[in-house]
Amino acid sequence: MKIHYNLDNLKPIRNPVITTGSFDGVHLGHKTILNRLNEIAQNTDGESVLITFHPHPRKVLFPDTAGKSLLLINSQCEKIELLRKTGLDHLFILNFTKEFSEISSIDFIRNILVAKLGARKVVIGFNHHFGHNREGNFDYLYELGQYYGFGVEEIPEQDIHNETVSSTLIRKALLEGRIQRANAYLDHHYIVMGELKEGSATCRQLNFRTLRIGIEEENKLVPPDGVYAVNVMIDGEFYKGILNIKNSLPVEQRKIEEIMIDIHLFEEADGLKGKMATVFFAKRIRDELQFTGPGQMMKQLESDISEVGELIY
Asked: Can the peptide bond before residue 55 be classed as cis, meaning omega within 30 degrees of 0?
């Protein structure tokens, strides 16, 4: 997958099949669109193209209201890695600014999809809107496609358990600690990527080794405090373990730098500090507890390890 951060000095893309959107979570509905994008590209000797944006448009358009409290399922590096797995040929991450938001739908089609990228076909999700004030839709895109010579296809709604899959629904499940439900909507494990650092001092005093994972993007959604069953990938190797999230503030008020995320790996491994890790969340085991002493805490940790060790995931 080739990653582009602007539309300047582009080499020609062969028969581009294009879609656009935020794609936060790269969930089941997104994958349906991307699978169709890749299928069309393969059948037309073309290349698949996704145009997405950073920062999230809601952060720019509504910084004091809807955008202020918006937490994202994926950091940018997480989204890139998830998209890489879909087989996408080209990813455009365009800087979303107030000025960019004022581009009309016809100018977006004429100046970007046609002039810059040479679109041969455009695939959009159900009820997708684009351009200034979301004025562009399927009918408008289809009409202009007839004029500029590109095809248009709309993907129907994607349902799971009779519920429409959306990034909003997944965020809600994650904020409630319903990891398995969120994973079903995502069609993959919810992930956290970050650098491994020195773990909990309290656990270290109990001779219980942990590593702390650092998160850089302040808008990254982190599930509620508690203990989770996880797999951790480091340098291509997978380690099973338990993960603890701890913070004194409610989920909506937390600051990313104040959230403590500590991982205990079941297998001993040295020299991991400073390495990048990807944490795959499988299940929430319990709430965060208050302990009267180190003995009680250690007993609970041993119980957590036993419970997670019996899980198959």
From this structure: yes
User: Domain 2-163, what architecture?
Assistant: 3-Layer(aba) Sandwich (3.40)
List the structure tokens of 294: 């180190």
Distance CA(6)–CA(259), nearest Å, equals 34
Distance CA 190, CA 143 (A): 39
Report cis status (omega within 30 of 0) of the bond before 156.
no
How far is it, in rounded angstroms, from Cα 50 to Cα 172?
Answer: 26
Measured on CA atoms in the order 299, 305, 307, 309, is the torsion positive or negative?
A: negative
Cα–Cα distance measured from residue 240 to residue 219, given in angstroms and rounded to the nearest whole number: 27
pLDDT tens digits, one per residue of 124-146: 887 777 776 667 778 889 999 99
Output the pTM of the full model.
0.91
CATH number of 190-309: 2.40.30.30
Neighbours of 214 (CB within 10 A): 14
> What is the distance between the alpha carbons of residues 109 and 88, in angstroms, rounded to a whole number?
21
Name which of 31, 72, 29 is nearest 48 in CA terms. Answer: 31
Strand partners, 263: 211, 243
Tokens of 134: 């979301």
pLDDT of residue 202: 86
Please give the DSSP secondary-structure letter assigned to residue 220: B
Residue 305, SS3 per DSSP:
helix
Query: Are the C-beta atoms of 33 and 73 separated by less than 8 Å?
Result: no
CA distance 231 to 122: 37
| CA 309 to the chain's CA centroid | 27
Query: What is the rounded distance in angstroms from the CA atom of residue 248 to the CA atom of residue 242?
Result: 20
CB 3 within 8 A of CB 91: yes
The band of 253, judged by pLDDT with boundaries at 50, 70 and 90, is low
Domain limits, CATH 3.40.50.620, in the chain: 2-163
Chain-centre distance for alpha carbon 52 = 12
